[in-house]
Amino acid sequence: MKNFRKTITLALLVIFVMTASSSYASDNTLREVFEDAFYGAGIGALVGAAFMAFTKKPADHLENIGYGAAVGVLAGSAYGMAKSARALAQIDNGRIRIAVPMIVPDLVESPSTRQTTVMWHANILRGTFN
Fold first, then answer.
1. Residue 26: what pLDDT?
2. CA 85 to CA 7: how far, in whole Å?
């Protein structure tokens, strides 16, 4: 239980650190992440309830709803973070915004050796052109 709390605390700390972005009044990064986490919790609770319905005694497995909601919050937060990832320089409708790029780990499998390695990448430039 102690390791579980440490893991959850570390995950929340990483999520809050990675949500830091440039400070513009129209920047809704944190709001989007919270919305995605909220929707993820709702969907996860529904999936947990669906799994609970297929057990022999559903009343004995109410924790499936909580587990589903918890997984949904984590998945929704991860989706929100990936969706709002910042680049070093972003061009948006003619305005250039500079921010610290988010370094993202990625698992890559080598086609020849079939070994999986961790590759780190960061977005350098992102643009929207109308």
1. 46
2. 23
| Residue 59 burial by Cβ neighbours in a 10 Å radius (0-12, 13-18, 19+) | exposed
36 within 8 A of 74, measured Cβ to Cβ? no
Q: pTM for this one?
A: 0.49
Tokens representing residue 50 in the block: 């669906």
CA distances to 8, 21, 24, 67 from 74, rounded to whole Å, are 10, 20, 26, 11
Distance (Å, rounded) from C-alpha 101 to C-alpha 5? 29
Place of tokens 């929207």: 128
Instruction: Give the domain ranges of the chain.
Output: 1-19+26-84, 87-130
Mean pLDDT of each 10-residue bin along the chain, 130 residues long: 70 61 56 87 91 86 88 87 67 70 76 81 66
pLDDT attached to residue 24: 47
Beta bridge partners, 126, equal 90
Beta bridge partners of 118: 107
